[in-house]
Design a protein that fits this description.
Helix content: over 70%
Radius of gyration: 41 Å
Number of helices: 7
Order of helices and strands: HHHHHHH
Number of strands: 0
Number of domains: 1
Length: 283
C-alpha cells in the first residue's frame, strides 16, 4: 500500500456512507466512524508529540553546547585561581590546594547523595502495592487470607534469569506483532494526511448528527400526533356512548345510524393513521 492510499482512505470512507439518510443507518455509521476518528486523533497526537520531541532534542543539543562552554569557563576560572595562588606560593602547591578543595566538596556531595538514594530505593510505591494486594486478597478469601504471601520471596539467580528471558521474549513477540500489523496496514499516514482525514470525518459526523436530530424530531412530532389522535378518538367514543344511551325505538335507531356512522368512519380513519405513524416511528 502507498501513503497516497492512506491519504485517500479517510475522505473515501466518509463520502461513501450514503446509508446515513435513515435514523438506523446514521446511528450505525456514526458507531463505526467515532472509533476510527478517535484512533486518528490519537495518531495525530502521537505525530505532534514526535514533532515536538524532535524540536526539543534540537533545543537540548544547544543546551548541551552551552553546558560544554560553561565547563570550559569553570576550567578557566580554576586555572585563574591557581595562577593567582602561584604568585604567593609555588604553582604545584596552588594546584594541589585547589584540587584538595574540589575533592572535599565532591566527597561531601557524593556522601549526601548516596545516603538519600539509599533511603529512596527501591523506586516504587511498595506500601501502596502491599496495601492493594492485601485488599484484593481480603476481597477474594476473606479472613482466610494469608498475609505472609504479601512478602515477596527473593528469586534465585536461575529464576531471575528465566524471568528476564521471558520478559525479553514477550517484548520481542510484541515488537514482531506490531511490525506485522504495520506491514499489513501499509506505511503510516503523515501528520498532514491525518489532519485532512480527521477534518473530513468530523464534517461527516456533524452531518450524521443533524440527520439523527432530524429523525428524533420526526419521532417526537409523530408521538405528539398519536397522543392527540388518541384523545380525539376517546372523546368521540365517549360522545357515541352517551348518544346511544339517549336514543330509543326505531326512529331513535335511524337517528343514531344517521348521526354516528360518520363517527365510526372517523374512528376507523384514526386507527389507520395510528398504525401508519407507528410503522413510521419504527423505521
Amino acid at each position: 500500500m502507498s501513503s497516497a492510499r492512506h491519504a485517500k482512505a479517510g475522505p473515501l470512507e466518509v463520502h461513501s456512507a450514503g446509508s446515513g439518510s435513515t435514523l438506523m443507518g446514521a446511528l450505525k455509521l456514526a458507531s463505526r466512524l467515532v472509533p476510527k476518528q478517535l484512533n486518528d486523533e490519537i495518531s495525530l497526537a502521537k505525530a505532534e508529540l514526535k514533532r515536538k520531541g524532535i524540536a526539543l532534542g534540537i533545543a537540548s543539543a544547544f543546551f548541551a553546547v552551552a553546558l560544554i562552554f560553561l565547563a570550559l569557563l569553570v576550567v578557566a576560572l580554576v586555572v585563574a585561581a591557581i595562577m593567582g595562588l602561584a604568585t604567593i606560593m609555588p604553582a604545584w602547591l596552588a594546584a594541589l590546594l585547589v584540587g584538595a578543595f574540589f575533592l572535599i566538596v565532591l566527597l561531601i556531595a557524593g556522601l549526601i547523595g548516596a545516603l538519600r538514594l539509599k533511603k529512596a530505593l527501591p523506586l516504587k510505591p511498595e506500601q501502596a502495592i502491599t496495601g492493594l494486594r492485601y485488599d484484593v486478597g481480603v476481597v477474594k478469601e476473606g479472613a482466610k487470607f494469608n498475609t505472609s504471601t504479601l512478602v515477596a520471596k527473593p528469586l534465585t539467580k536461575a529464576e531471575a534469569k528465566a524471568k528476564k528471558a521471558e520478559k525479553t521474549a514477550k517484548s520481542k513477540r510484541a515488537k514482531a506483532e506490531k511490525e506485522a500489523k504495520a506491514a499489513l496496514n501499509g506505511p503510516a499516514p503523515t501528520e498532514h494526511e491525518l489532519s485532512q482525514r480527521t477534518a473530513a470525518r468530523r464534517e461527516h459526523l456533524l452531518g450524521l448528527r443533524a440527520t439523527i436530530m432530524a429523525h428524533a424530531d420526526v419521532r417526537k412530532d409523530a408521538r405528539t400526533l398519536i397522543h392527540k389522535a388518541k384523545i380525539t378518538a376517546d372523546d368521540a367514543a365517549r360522545d357515541a356512548r352517551r348518544g346511544l344511551a339517549d336514543l330509543s325505538g326505531s326512529a331513535a335507531a335511524q337517528t343514531a345510524r344517521d348521526r354516528w356512522v360518520p363517527v365510526g368512519v372517523f374512528l376507523v380513519s384514526v386507527t389507520i393513521l395510528l398504525i401508519f405513524l407507528r410503522k413510521l416511528i419504527r423505521k
